[in-house]
From TrEMBL:
The keyword Cell membrane applies. Keywords: ATP synthesis, Cell membrane, CF(1), Hydrogen ion transport, Ion transport, Membrane, Transport. PANTHER family: ATP SYNTHASE DELTA CHAIN. Its main location: membrane. InterPro entries: ATP_synth_OSCP/delta_N_sf, ATPase_OSCP/d_CS, ATPase_OSCP/dsu. It is a peripheral membrane protein. It comes from the Bacteria. This is ATP synthase subunit delta. The keyword Cell membrane applies. Gene3D superfamilies: N-terminal domain of the delta subunit of the F1F0-ATP synthase.
Amino acid sequence: MAELSTLARPYAKAAFAYAQQASHLGGWSAALETAAAVSQNEKVRELLDNPQLTSEERADKFLSICSDELGEHGKNFIRLLAENHRLQLLPEISELFEELKAQAEATLEVEVVSAHALSDAQAQALGQKLRAKFEREIHLHSSVDESLLGGAIIRAGDTVIDGSVRGRLAKLAEAMNS
């Protein structure tokens, strides 16, 4: 997995630099997300792995599927990826682009999995505390997992905060067994 990120990083950085210079981060974000979704389709993967097709033919077939969602620069980007045999990296490129965009916009996507649904007041209070902790604008997404018994697990970038009862019980059991 690290290898794919390493290969995708220069393309994501180049796309980001261009999009930022053109003040079109949102459009590029949507275009890369669409292209990444198309590239993960089983039939499209077969097409991309077909050794009988030239790079140009792969690009043309790929663009015939999603060219309406891509601008001229996006189409050129797809052609460049095809020429360098990197179309399969589109999901990683899109993900890295989103990380660069979030850093530039000082935003952070936060996933909260709790035992019970968060009230609006709880979500707002949690968002404010996370905003102060990470010094970024927080986009909070919450879901419910009743197996947690109580509490919540918060995933913010590389940080995971396990405040669930299940997690605390696991830590207690581990401490008792040590």
